[in-house]
Amino acid sequence: MKNYLALLFFFISFALLAQTTITGTVTAGKLPVAGANVYLEGTYDGASTDAAGRFSFTTTETGTQTLVVSSIGYDTHYEMGEVTYFQELNIVLQEAINSLSGVTLTAGSFEAGTESKAAALKPLDIVTTAGVAGDIGSALQTLPGTTTVSEDGRLFVRGGRAEETQVFIDGQRVFQPFMASTNNVPTRGRFSPFLFKGVSFSTGGYSAEYGQALSGVLLMNTTDLPDQEKTDISVMSVGAGLGHTEIWGNTSLSFNTSYINLSPYEALIPSTNGVRWNNPYESMAGEAVFRQKGERSMFKFYTGFNHANFDIDQEDINFEEYVNFRLKNNNLYLNANYKYFFENNWTVYAGASTAWDTNAITVVENDIETADTSLHLKLKASKEFSSRFKLNVGSEVFHTNYEEEFIANNGFDFIAGFDELLWSGFAEADVFFSNNFALKLGARTEYSNLIEAWNVAPRASLAYKTGQDSQLSLAYGNYYQNPLTQFINYDATLDYERTAHYILNYQYAKNGKTFRVEGYYKDYDNLVKYDTREPQFNSNFTNLGNGYAAGLDVFYRDNKSIKNLDYWLSYSYLNTERNFLDFTEQATPNFANAHNFSAVGKYWVNDWRSQIGMSYSYGSGRPYDNPNTPEFYAEKTKDYHNLSLNWAYLIDQQKILFFSVNNVLGTNNIGNYQYANTPNAEGVYNRRAISPAADSFFFVGFFWTISSDKKSNQLDNL
Amino acid sequence: MKKTILICLLVVTSMLSAQDKYTKGMQKALQLWGEGKITEASNLFERISMVEQDNWLPYYYNALVNTTASFGETDETKLKQKLEKAQEFIDVAKNISPDNAELLVLEALTNTAYIAFDGATYGMTLSGKVVQLYEKAAQLAPNNPRVVFSKAEWDMGSAKYFGKDTTPYCKDVERSLELFANFKPETEFYPNWGQDRAKEVLAQCNN
């Protein structure tokens, strides 16, 4: 019996110690994979593959086991089977789809942020670029695809009007992204850049998720979780600001308030170009972001309130006296969104944004009161079926209620307005055939209760990697947009305006150098026309307008070749004509000039603890119509030049002194001419030049950050 | 009786060999790392961590191997692959062992690797995070030599960037050397690096 037991134990130990050798080769494509980790799941037994992709190891395990083969850059491979059969295995790995080195669907878009390799601008650039002064819109104007319309301040993309570009925060529409202003007083964006972690600016060919934009979309994302608690104080030549961030575990709140008053500045350096400020621009603004991160969810709430008022007298060729314009604007914007990540790779997003915007305007004792209430609801679901296939479907509702009352000083009273409900649905799929070839295919449909018609817009883009650091992309899409408020206000029978985009893009990025060139063609149709000089209640409106835009955008950025110097160059060529509004024939509109060039440079001087920035922009002459000649829009203004400088000096790590001068040379840039409505005694239409209210602008600011680490500063906010 | 002894012996032996396997595995992996066989070391740590799922150390070492290997990497794609892998393992380790100052120091180091690669791109976005990690680590383990030394080295780096005097941080390095000398690892394979580097940095201080 004893012997029998001993024998049994002997066999058991023998069985335990019996070793099987597992061998094989790991390849991908035809090439061996070196350094892959090959092992039996749940055991220490394994090995790394050698340069020839070969592996060999012994194991004492028996029976059915799972062999795991993993290597960075490839999908992990699992092989189940009897250990004894794991001999001379031939394992072929599939390359993992890699968002870092793989092909990206980027035609038409520029990104600012560190997340994407398509990033053309860094978050800092919005604030450290000379002449930009923290305005996201101005920073984007240093990129190709925009035209310089300096007396306006908004984004004019590839031959499109400013209204053809829509702005989104965290996927929700922003209804009034720019401050209320008037003719020839340049506006700014309403947002302070430091509440946002990334900006993606698309000048064409964008995704089916975004609609009601004929030319471009600007997508801004608020920061997820701030790193630290801090207080920011700023004292500027034009006002003051206060910001604070508070963190409680996974919950945080940031707010930023500012008071701007241009009175002291105007008293010191009055604006001279045909304006007299009775009450210079004054604004009170507050913004807040609340975020809460759960185990598998993220909730964000953004709100912004802005009150602005001013009183200005402006020169007008049709009047002897200056024309008075007074404005009071209130804007409240709320944006909430919630994202939940399910275990099965589904992500659900629900968002809502709403805006209340009121204007009280007085133009030479005529009163105009407007009230705009807008709402955007969005529900979206996306699923990553694998790293090769992603699906994104959603539905949106937009509601706009607009009322306008015009009370003339002679007692004439006119009330107009509309109430619109727009529904839309979209679906889009991303297919990665390999790391070198990807396709995005989608469609969007919309129904407006005002237009009472459906539209269907297909979108597609293709990307192919031509080399280690370069890729070629193609994009096509149809885009629809409702007629502008001021048209649909008077005639609700108008149809959607439409464009089609065709884009070809080549991009090369290596070692801090980025080069991209993009050619495009845009076909406009269904544009609104009317038969009076200005759109008014008795105009006859039609959708018979059309046009085209073709051009080439070139961008080059280099931050490595010269130490401490970062620079970029942009050039855009635009050829566009359209027949719209009150045009009598097809012509190039005033906001579209043929050549735009900008150069931006930043140099860090370590010994001076200073960053010195320079930017130069050039725009060729803009077309205008001279009624003294029979030709339509045949003349051009002189070329546009603007050289801006800035200097940020770090007093210490948390205190910064900042100086900037916009248009150092004081070039008097002319954007257009206003001609008299009627000719003078000699039969000639008189004119006056239209320029920004002031040629140059000076800015001095002191920025102080108080944080526990004593290190952060607002260099990234300037 | 004999049978019982035999069974006991067998059980003990098998337990011993199980523990032995971990010790042997870790020793082997550390040896591979010492020989500069980064991939092999990382792979072995990964295999160990897949078995020892309640032990933060194999995860810690795998992340450490990948982080240290990424300093000096010039290819951004490879750099990100290594650092993302490191961060993944740190996240798992933090779940196993929350409020562990060693892991926070390692996470700070992983983020520093990005900044070292491209300060203009990653500096402003990640330096706040690094500072916060060191602060939290200092709260949890104010007398851990790696916490004291790594924080001092980081502070010196940022002072240098802003053209400031770095000498105030030298006394922190000195203090860390005292702490290194008296440091007793809590368990086998507990992190025990940094002393040599601290000596090098102090030598620069005294120049």
Automatic annotation (TrEMBL), chain A:
Gene Ontology cellular component annotations, sorted alphabetically: cell outer membrane
Domain TonB-dependent receptor-like beta-barrel: 310-664
Signal peptide extent: 1-18
Pfam families in UniProt: CarbopepD_reg_2, Plug, TonB_dep_Rec_b-barrel
Principal subcellular localization: membrane
Localization annotation: Cell outer membrane
Membrane topology of this protein: Multi-pass membrane protein
Gene Ontology biological-process entries: siderophore transmembrane transport
InterPro entries xrefs: Beta-barrel_TonB (IPR000531), Beta-barrel_TonB_sf (IPR036942), CarboxyPept-like_regulatory (IPR008969), Plug_dom (IPR012910), Plug_dom_sf (IPR037066), TonB-dep_rcpt-like (IPR039426)
Single Gene Ontology MF annotation: siderophore uptake transmembrane transporter activity
Residue ranges annotated for the TonB-dependent receptor plug domain, each copy included: 133-217
Domain of life: Bacteria
Keywords: Cell outer membrane, Membrane, Receptor, Signal, TonB box, Transmembrane, Transmembrane beta strand, Transport
Family designation: Belongs to the TonB-dependent receptor family.
PANTHER family: HEMOGLOBIN AND HEMOGLOBIN-HAPTOGLOBIN-BINDING PROTEIN 1-RELATED (PTHR30069:SF29), TONB-DEPENDENT OUTER MEMBRANE RECEPTOR (PTHR30069)
Protein name from the UniProt record: TonB-dependent receptor
Lineage: Bacteria, Pseudomonadati, Bacteroidota, Flavobacteriia, Flavobacteriales
From TrEMBL, chain B:
Keywords: Signal
Keyword Signal set for record: yes
Signal sequence interval, chain numbering: 1-18
SUPFAM superfamilies: TPR-like
Gene3D superfamilies according to UniProt: Tetratricopeptide repeat domain (1.25.40.10)
InterPro entries found in the cross-reference section: TPR-like_helical_dom_sf
This protein's name: Tetratricopeptide repeat protein
Annotated organism of origin: Croceivirga radicis
